[in-house]
Amino acid sequence: MKKGVTSLGRFLIEEQRRFPEATGDFTLILEQIAFAAKIISREVNKAGLINILGKAYSVNVHGEEQQKLDVYANQKMIEALDHIGKVCAMASEEEDDVIHVPDRYPKGKYVVVFDPLDGSSNIDVNISIGTIFGIYKRVSEGENGCEKDFLQKGRKLVGAGYVIYGSSTMFVYSTGNGVSGFTLDPSVGEFLLSHPNIKIPEKGKIYSINEANYHRWDEKIRKYVEYIKNLEERQYTSRYIGSLVADFHRNLLKGGVFLYPGDSKNPKGKLRLLYEANPLAYIVEQAGGLATDGEQMILDIQPESLHQKTPLIIGSKWEVETYLKFMRGEA
Ligand code: AHG
Ligand code: MN
Ligand code: MN
Ligand code: MN
């Protein structure tokens, strides 16, 4: 008999049942992030109709002009998590410092990092954008969380995922037992399981990189990109959307590699370790892929600060391993 559709809620309960020691805290955090995603998705889908487009006339810690939707999405993520008593602190691309749960709410044993709206430059031109999140068990003592809780290696993540607001809205996450994808059915307002057990192809035919930076790349990077472009056994195509979540999601499903390397102007590249590279590196490893900064695996980097940047090369095993060979002068 054909099994009915599995909602995210049902999937989370069935996942939780597999771990008798599970307390349900984690399930609630993921459900709340999914709730925030639905609210953000609603605004994204009508952004052109209300005054949520355009600039917020404020700047974040990166000196980036904040879009109204950056600020809105950030607020919705905080509101979804601050009162449930499962989280003791949060860190966001859009907030300089650690976001503490207000005293009036109970604290929990997890901390959550997030990029509330990824691909902000694409909001006003109706191109796919996303939200990225990661969940850690707190390691600090005392009532409130602190920066130390966020400076854990990505290897310590207990869960991570992203939302992509594209032709449909999808919620993709892992808690260490494989990667599952859910598609929002707006008619019922539920995320329904559409991509069980996502695995990234061993090698692909897509490479994603902003070639406008070519003149600033290290010679080894240029050689790698030329090698990929001229590969005999298969013809690659270039796809670059400028929204990390969208570029990553396409490569996760179809295979391929996304690269935002360091260059002569930005030695550590542009992407942030805590709430962009680590959560996606966690997902890609769970799906059988790899993520590196060119020297070590992303998940093994010891973070030093909340907003530190890292070069990010992420995707199919073959493309990432080949990149590392070029960086080590072995290819
Ligand atoms: P955010 O909008 O969260 O600041 O992230 C933007 C990032 C990422 O989404 C994308 O891959 C990258 O910026 C694109 O950078 P370039 O425009 O320099 O290629
Ligand atoms: Mn930004
Ligand atoms: Mn981003
Ligand atoms: Mn962002």
From TrEMBL:
The Fructose-1-6-bisphosphatase class I N-terminal domain, residue ranges: 7-196
Ranges for domain Fructose-1-6-bisphosphatase class 1 C-terminal: 200-327
EC number: 3.1.3.11
Keyword entries, A-Z: Carbohydrate metabolism, Cytoplasm, Hydrolase, Magnesium, Metal-binding
Pfam short name (any one): FBPase_C
Keyword presence, Electron transport: no
GO cellular component labels: cytosol
Molecular function via GO: fructose 1,6-bisphosphate 1-phosphatase activity; magnesium ion binding
Binding site for Mg(2+) 2: D115, D118, E276
Cofactor(s) named in the record: Mg(2+)
Biological pathway: Carbohydrate biosynthesis; Calvin cycle; Carbohydrate biosynthesis; gluconeogenesis
Coiled-coil parts of chain: none
Catalysed transformations (reactions): beta-D-fructose 1,6-bisphosphate + H2O = beta-D-fructose 6-phosphate + phosphate
Residues that bind substrate: D118, G119, S120, S121, N210, Y240, K270
Gene Ontology annotations of biological process type: fructose 1,6-bisphosphate metabolic process; fructose 6-phosphate metabolic process; fructose metabolic process; gluconeogenesis; sucrose biosynthetic process
Cofactor: record remark: Binds 2 magnesium ions per subunit.
Binding site for Mg(2+) 1: E93, D115, L117
Chain ranges passing through the membrane: none
Cell location: Cytoplasm
Keyword flag Iron: no
HAMAP family: FBPase_class1
Assembly description: Homotetramer.
Family: Belongs to the FBPase class 1 family.
Protein name: Fructose-1,6-bisphosphatase class 1
Source organism: Deferribacter desulfuricans (strain DSM 14783 / JCM 11476 / NBRC 101012 / SSM1)
